[in-house]
Amino acid sequence: MDIANYMQQIGQQAKSASRLMARASSAQKNQALRLIAAAILREAVAIRAANHIDMEAARATGLAPAMLDRLSLSEQAINNMAEGLLQIAALPDPIGEITDLKFRPSGIQVGQMRVSLGVIGIIYEARPNVTVDAAGLCIKSGNATILRGGSEAIHCNQALAKLVQEGLLGAGLPVQAVQVIETTDRAAVGQLITMPEFVDVIVPRGGKGLIERLIKESTVPMIKHLDGICHVYIDDKADLVKAANIAFNAKCHRYGTCNTMETLLVARPIAAQILPKLATLYARKQVELRCDAEAFALLADYPYLVAAQEADWSTEYLAPILSIKIVSDLDEAITHINHYSSQHTDTLVSEDYSRALRFMREVDSASVIVNASTRFADGFEFGLGAEIGISTDKLHARGPVGLHGLTSVKYVVFGHGEVRE
Amino acid sequence: MDIANYMQQIGQQAKSASRLMARASSAQKNQALRLIAAAILREAVAIRAANHIDMEAARATGLAPAMLDRLSLSEQAINNMAEGLLQIAALPDPIGEITDLKFRPSGIQVGQMRVSLGVIGIIYEARPNVTVDAAGLCIKSGNATILRGGSEAIHCNQALAKLVQEGLLGAGLPVQAVQVIETTDRAAVGQLITMPEFVDVIVPRGGKGLIERLIKESTVPMIKHLDGICHVYIDDKADLVKAANIAFNAKCHRYGTCNTMETLLVARPIAAQILPKLATLYARKQVELRCDAEAFALLADYPYLVAAQEADWSTEYLAPILSIKIVSDLDEAITHINHYSSQHTDTLVSEDYSRALRFMREVDSASVIVNASTRFADGFEFGLGAEIGISTDKLHARGPVGLHGLTSVKYVVFGHGEVRE
Questions:
Q1: Could you tell me which of B355, B399, B351 has the C-alpha nearest to residue B371?
Q2: CB pairs under 8 A between A and B
Q3: I need a surface site. Which of A210, A313, B181, B397 has the fewest CB within 10 A?
């Protein structure tokens, strides 16, 4: 197989399909989503059989249990995929929406129309549900998409791709609007990220290593985040009950997510009061605490105590490990966060009005939270209805990215014969 | 002078200044703009003297008259620069604005806060007024900026930079928020566009050749357009009076601007009726008409008639030259435009409601206009108050780019102690 030729063909087909998707009606797009959902439920047994082949092969190559867990599709997971598509169908169609239509002194009326981006390339690991979620979001936002999932999920992804294309066909939409790359050859990814003539944006989802490599090689813009080094700062004006709940939830609700807290900052005046209480909570979950010298001294009896190293302040543990630092005040906290944070999500716990406003304004992260868990930084929790990924960049899309992040706008002018004087 | 070291230092200083600019109050930023405007009026004689030095040097090297014209600063141009700053001061401050603050079922309240981008690099040709306009827009949007103007304007730009920095200082803002590169060495540009650690976005303004070169080398995202191949399509349902006014204005109002029409498309059923009328108008301005075979036959007596070549459909003349093609209908017009247009600005002239809606939806350009001149595609005419440039890309900013294009948003969450269940 000539990978370069194959990818050129995939790219051309996607580009052609994207033109038809851009002008598809809301009714057609929603019909496609509902047809795909129905096909997935109808073919649940066949999907699980394809998934079984992938799982057997992955076990044989000794894939890690956590990866196997992501790869496996339970009956519930299949129902969730179908349900997710119906939820996307129920969202308002962003495409064609015109906002801010205003008359200008010249007599023209100027507004902005939301339009699709074109072709979205999505690169992800061995999670077959992403195939369906991403296809659904791209269809609804009037884009064509090229999907490249982890090679371990290839059989399941191809089974799902057939059902997606069946749904597109049934709704009178181009089947090539959603294409799953059929080869597991890594060169296909190299091609996908260097075809700016066909691909408008790449959404990479996966580990930091993968994304760093893609950034280096890609000539197509990306909507991405590298990692989530999220902070909670407990201010000396904090409500300590809220503080304990938030700091516990932000670390222990789930360890492997990018919006999980990795570093806890505590104001010196209340450190001796709050830290032992928090330690009691963390001890139940056997959370390792990597403390600076002051916090270390306060928590000397804690069973999973470690002295923090400089590297801890910039490490995403994705595990029951938390670094803790005591700071003098809000200024030191903001300075620490703006230096070490991955600009993903950071939380202040405080009842002080002015400090809350300062934290919101001065912390330079995609999501800045006062008095709530970092775990809320998520497309569904923020009300986007769905999420294609999270961006820690400032251009185009920032924070959780939903349908709008897969769109652009153009200016539209309603004239009545006006000319420039 | 070690250019790499020099630019690293400029970059670091800009990054530091950008942090202070991001949190500057509206009052401080507006005070700086007013102080700079006052300083420019006060030092008008000195500015013109610096400009005189540049003009003499440019004449000595034989700079083209059109370029000399752009380089020269009349008293009126100096007044306009000051007036422009006062207009920017009068615009609402976009930074810190919070929109769409909504309660979620979890109890948190989520919105988006507008924030500055950081450091903007601006690369432009020998037009000293851009120095002041760009500085003003970057100050107002809470960014730091590094300005690299055409080397022919170096004395004038440095004189203006001093006044800008005087204004920043007077308002208590960091003087390094606006830095003008002090060397005319081209290597400085190469450095500026490859310092993503210091520069968040590059706005290049200039000819297609310059921008193509920058695109190839830059590792920093750009807000840009390459050229303006703008179309007017006169539909067979057009009001022919409006059509003639618009087609004449779009070509002849100014020849050298990127929103000037370069290709006129005419529906076959009305071609014989409208084209001779238009030719009478164009003849007065000695506009050369490069026609396809059908239009050529209709305009056989026109004094400046040329047969169009394939290359004409993708040429930006920036001159009194117009290519003309006869098409069968709206579909052929849209297909031609989406193929040959530079996605800048395209106009339909028609009284047909459904065709107007289809043109607006299906033409994939930054500005899509019905029944008005392409010349309206401009930040001031669209009501942005000011313009840093025009983007024909779809990511981040599209069309005329004002203050908002120099900003991003972050999610802000107002919580009351909420945690994820």
A1: B351
A2: 203
A3: A210
A61, part of any domain: yes
Residue among A180, A163, A150 at smallest CA distance from A54: A150
Percent of chain A with pLDDT over 70: 100
CA A96 to chain centroid, in Å, comes to 25
Question: What pLDDT score does A1 carry?
Answer: 78
Please answer yes or no on whether B253 and A368 come within 8 Å at the CB atom: no
Residue from the list B372, B375, B420 with its beta carbon closest to the beta carbon of A253: B420
Q: Kindly state whether residues A65 and A195 are assigned to the same domain.
A: yes
Question: Which CATH number belongs to the domain containing residue A145 in this structure?
Answer: 3.40.605.10
- By Cβ distance, the residue of B408, B410, B418 closest to A368 is B410
Residues of B in contact with A102 (CB under 8 A): 383
B155/chain A closest Cα distance in angstroms: 34
CATH number at residue B267: 3.40.309.10
CB atoms A376 and B408 under 8 Å: no
Strand (E) positions, A160-292? Answer: 178-180, 201-204, 230-234, 261-267, 288-291
> How far is the C-alpha of B298 from the C-alpha of B12, rounded, in Å?
63
Nearest CA in chain B to A395: B396
Minimal CA separation from A124 to chain B, in Å: 22
Range B409-418 average pLDDT: 98
8 Å CB contact of B412 and A369? yes
pLDDT tens figures, A112-152 = 999 999 999 999 988 999 999 999 999 999 999 999 999 99
If pLDDT is split at 50, 70 and 90, which confidence band does B386 have?
A: confident
Burial group, residue B253, by CB count within 10 angstroms (0-12, 13-18, 19+): middle
Q: Please report the pLDDT score of residue A403 as a whole number.
A: 95
Please determine, for residue B163, whether its predicted confidence score (pLDDT) is greater than 90. yes
Give the gap in angstroms from C-alpha A74 to the nearest C-alpha of chain B: 23
Proportion of chain B above pLDDT 90, given as a percent: 93
| Chain B CA closest to residue A117 | B394
Torsion angle of C-alpha atoms B278, B279, B284, B285, degrees rounded to 10: 90
d(CA B166, CA A20): 55
Our CA-based measurement puts residue B40 at a distance from the nearest CA of chain A, in whole angstroms, of 29
CA distances from A195 to A185, A219, A289, A396 (A): 17, 7, 46, 20
Residue B138 belongs to a domain: yes
Query: A284 and A209: one domain?
Result: no
Residue of B nearest to A369 (CA): B413
Minimal Cβ distance to A413: which of B253, B372, B413? B372
Amino acid at position A365, single letter:
S
pLDDT of residue B218: 92
**Interface pTM (ipTM) of the complex?**
0.94
Q: Are residues B57 and B196 in the same domain?
A: yes
Parent domain of A182: 3-223+397-414
Residues 6+ apart with CB under 8 A from B233: B265, B266, B267, B327, B330, B333, B337, B346, B347, B348, B349, B359
pLDDT tens column, A72-97: 999 999 999 999 999 999 999 999 99
pLDDT value of position B391: 95
Both tokens assigned to A288? 């390792």
Contact B414 A104 (CB under 8 A): no
Residues of B in contact with A239 (CB under 8 A): 417
Q: Are residues A241 and A130 in the same domain?
A: no
Query: Do B410 and A420 lie within an 8 Å CB cutoff?
Result: no
Which of B23, B106, B371 lies at the smallest CB-CB distance from A381? Answer: B106
**Taking CA atoms, what residue in A is nearest to B241?**
A417
| A302/chain B closest Cα distance in angstroms | 25
Asked if residue A320 has pLDDT above 90, the reply is yes
Number of continuous H segments (helices) and E segments (strands) in chain A: 14, 16
> Among partner residues A371, A414, A420, which is closest to B253 by beta-carbon distance?
A420
Specify the number of domains making up chain B.
2
